[in-house]
Amino acid sequence: MSRENGRLTVLHLSDVHATDGALLYDAVDGTARLRSVADYVRQAGATPEAILVTGDLVQRGNASAYPMVRDAFAALEDAVGVPVLTIIGNHDDPDAARILAGHENGHARTVLLDALRFVLLDSSSGALGEEQLAWLRAELAEPHGEGTVIAVHHPPLGSPLPTLAKAGLRDADALLDVLEGSDVRAVLSGHFHHPLAATVRSIPVFVGPSLAYHQVMDAGPDHVSGHDRAMFSLVHLLPEAVTSTSVSLESPSPLFLSPVTR
Fold it and tell me: Could you give the number of structural domains in the chain?
């Protein structure tokens, strides 16, 4: 696994927007793209400790897609050989999503994977709320192993796009108050459909790109638009740093292919 190289790796997926029946925008098959992620891991030789999916698992109005999504996550887990951890987003149906592994008794939970702690939050309403924040404070009261990764669909900051500048977590300051001074190594989010890296109150925040589509960054101040581009991230937790690298599922022909001398 990655820890043999001195790092812990999280494969960070987000915004699958799976549908049941017609493809999203007549082009996007979310569950097929999950299968493509498994192909990438095999071909690239990636060795993640976990796969984390930060919400909008299905497109709004497609609650009947959850059984298909559940099976796709199970297949991805089997193919890669590591746990697939999921949270829900604003497009998800909190009741229908209980069919997913780990969501049977609620959507906010803690998962321990050896020395790494994942705290999975529910911001499907756009905010966390006082009750969930109090639970989170209690969870973080004691540090764990090599630290904690927070997963929340809505980032605790805004996008640089004018149309998404106020689309982050509504109670972001309250969340950051809880996280400040804890053992949190990084916050992983989605929602914006474009990658974003920031440091907020000394906490690294990484917004993962979307498996469904990528925001057109020059669409103007009054529009949102999407490229048909499927992307995800590789997050590496190093002893003294955290990095996030965006990866595209597109496979253009390489300009060169050279062996690496080790």
Answer: 1
